[in-house]
Structure formats: C-alpha cells, structure tokens
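Blinded run. Sample ID left blank on purpose so nobody reads anything into the name before looking at the predicted structure. Input follows.
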Amino acid sequence: MMLWRGEMKKTLMTQRGIWVLLVCLVLKLAFLCAFPEQKDRRIVLSQKQYDKYLDQLYGENTREKSDWILAEYKTCKEVKDSQEAMQGKYARGELTDAQWEAYTQALTQADLHINSAQIFAEKAEQFLKQPEDIPPAHYIYEYGWQTVFALLQFPDVFLLFGLLVLTAQCFPAEVSSGMLPVLLAARNGRRKLFRGKLLALLTVGLSAAVISSGLEWVVFSLRGWCNDAAAPLYSITRLAACSLELSLGEGYVLCLGVRLLATLLLVTLLFGLSVWLKSTTNLIFSGLCILALPLLWGGTAALFTHGGLLSGTRMLLWLGESVTNLVLPVVTVTAYSTVVAFFAARRHARGPRAFGLPKR
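Blinded prediction complete.
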C-alpha cells in the first residue's frame, strides 16, 4: 500500500501528471462546448414547420404516420414541380385569376413546408426499410443524439494522450535519468515496483476516465442533446443500420462502459510495452499506432483492437444483432493485454539486465 501511495504521488505530483490530465480535460471541455450541433441545414429554412411536423409525428412510428408524411412531401413536391407549367397556362389565359390565386397560395405553403416534409419523409423511408420483427423506431428531434454519437465514433483523444504521456514517464523516463538501477536494487524493487507502478497507473486511468465521461455527460445534458433517451438506437440516422435492440441511453452507457474498460486495457498494454521500449518517443509512437489501427479497416475485426473498442459509435454498428457479440473481442483484448503485462513483469524481475543496464 505504501509503495502504491508512493507511485501515485510520483505519477501525479513529481511527474506533474495531475497537471497533464487537467490540461487535457480542460481542452476537452473547450472542444465539447465549441463543437456545433450536427443539425440539418434545411431546418434553418423552416424551423416552425419542422416543429409542427415533429409535434404531429412525435413518438413511435406507425404505418399511418409514415404514409401521411410521405403524402405531405409528395403533395409539396408536385406543387413545386408544376410551377413552370402553371405559369405558362396563366400567361396563355388558360387559368382564371381565382385559379391562379389558389395555386399561388398552395405554392407559398409548399415553399414553407417542403424542406421539413422532405426531412421527415426521408425518416419515414428509413423506418420502412427496417425489419418488422424489431420494436418500431421513434420520430424524435434526433440532432442532439446525432452529435453525441458523432463525437463517440472516435476514441477520447484528450484523455488517452494524457494517459499515454503518464505511461511514457514510468520506466523509459527512469532509464534515461539513470534512476532505474537504484530503484531495482531497492528492497521493494522488481516485482513489487512493477505491480505498484501498474496499479497506480490503472487507478489514475480509472479516475480520469470516469471524470472525463462525467464531463461529457454534463456538457451533453446542458446542451440538450440527451432528450428522448428511451427511443431505439436506430431512430437516428447515424445508427439507422444498427440492429441492436437498445435505447439511445442504453447505447450511450454501453459505449462509455466499453471505453472505460478499453482505456484500462490500453494502459496495461502500454505499461507492459514500456519495459521493452526504452524510449519515451518509441512508446508514444507505438501507442498512437495501436489507437489508429481501426482506421485502417472496418467491421468486426476492428473490435479485436483497443482502438476498435474505444470507437463507441462504430463499435455499436460492428456488433451486429446482439451485445453478446462483444464478449469475444473484450476477452481477446483483455487476454493479449494481460499476457504482454505478464511477460513484462517477468522481464522486469530480471533486474537491471532486462533494461540493458550494468549489473550492480
């Protein structure tokens, strides 16, 4: 326990880890506050009409709702498309003033409603393509959740960079400073030192990840992005292809939970690699490569990497029809992260020779 406390103090205070994490979290807060809502530009042209349609359609989708909004959009489009022909008829005297007045009023209404009607008609077509054996999607104001899951499709780069810097300051920094031989020769050296450092890093990583996730949730809630959390995941366009029978809130919590676990596993893997990689630069480069691997390919295979598990939104799409499909990837990533740490501990137990240092 004393060794753990000492390593915690060294990580947070001596190596200024608390300031590194604080800067990363402040940068993340600024980014979240400045990030714009992923809103359809067509709404700006007809906000009142959009709100009107949403009030009428809001809630669980039905065939009647979809047919109604599709008919609304079809009517608006037909009125707009006939504008040139109607102008020609009026110019030729084929329409009376009353008929032309009625058409211009219909055209004005079509101009007002067509953008919003098109948005919901696209949603209706999306819902009609979904399987009938799953709970129906909901008509909601989706752009808050669209923004949340747009941000969740990438790893938490601010948090992970901070943890990567802290991990890189463990063994590589002590090798370069010449302090490692002294530490390895101490009574609590070798195995206890390895366990103490790893436990301290995991504690810091867990605390930082929880704070980072809490910070996200607070910002998302204050910006009104987490409404209608009970609606199915596939109610929003970004997750239309998702087959999981989870609500938006449950999907969000699942992403955060998996990200938390993957963060701890990444810290474990990088800490193990630090025993072999004697250079801070090499360790940081290796960590960035591990995180970037899922960007090279998509699909289920990416789930077997740390970066894949950290890519929350894409992870939901890669899972298929069941959350249980997550078990094998998590077990696999846990296994090879633990194996690397285990062999790193054995190498570390050899003392100075494991780091290419002269025996004392």
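Unblinding after everyone has recorded impressions. The radius of gyration is 28 Å.
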